[in-house]
Amino acid sequence: MIEEARNNFLGKTGARYNCAQAVIKAYAELFGLPAGTVEAHAGFGGGNAPHGYCGALYAALYILAFKDSGKSQKCKDFFRGHSGALTCREIRSGRKITCLSCVEKAAEFLKREL
Predict the structure, then answer these.
(1) Cys staple from 33: which of 28, 55, 59, 69, with CB 3.0 to 4.6 Å?
(2) Cβ–Cβ under 8 Å, residues 48 and 78
(3) Is 0.90 surpassed by the pTM of this model?
(4) Distance (Å, rounded) from C-alpha 54 to C-alpha 74?
(5) Do residues 66 and 33 touch, judged by C-beta distance below 8 A?
(6) 81 with 92: CB under 8 angstroms?
């Protein structure tokens, strides 16, 4: 799933998806996400996710909420540990990891925890 999310973001699967869509698309079928979920996250890349979250993180949190897993804080802690922040703006300004790495870390958490 990590590689699929990566390929979605890089456009290796055909269309190029933003960070949120790349993670959602990688897990949509596995978790039975509603039709149109990938499209609904089209505006959540580039710092436009709610609360300014990184889109990849927001997608992971969305999936966790959809699955009612109760692991959202653990996800935020994991993500912050790797990226240094939760918001796109802070992650980009901190230059600790790239957007692609954010996609990979969000997908990694989901794979590991779900």
Answers:
(1) 28
(2) no
(3) yes
(4) 16
(5) yes
(6) no
Per DSSP, what are the bridge partners of residue 53?
87
Q: How far apart are CA 58 and CA 70, in angstroms?
A: 15
pLDDT bin (cut points 50, 70, 90) of residue 59 is: very high
The backbone region for 70, taken as left when phi is positive above 0, alpha when psi lies in -120 to 50, beta otherwise, is: left
Tokens read off for 12: 């290796």
> Which one-letter amino acid corresponds to residue 81?
G
Asked if 52 and 89 touch (Cβ cutoff 8 Å), the reply is yes
Locate 102 and state its tokens: 């954010």
**Residue 92, φ and ψ in degrees, nearest 5:** -65, -45
Checking if the pLDDT of 87 tops 90, the result is: yes
Long-range contact set of residues 93-100: C-beta below 8 Å, sequence gap at least 24: 99/9, 99/19, 99/56, 100/6, 100/9, 100/10
CB 22 within 8 A of CB 56: yes
Q: Hey, is 69 helix, strand or coil?
A: coil
Mean pLDDT value across residues 71-91: 97
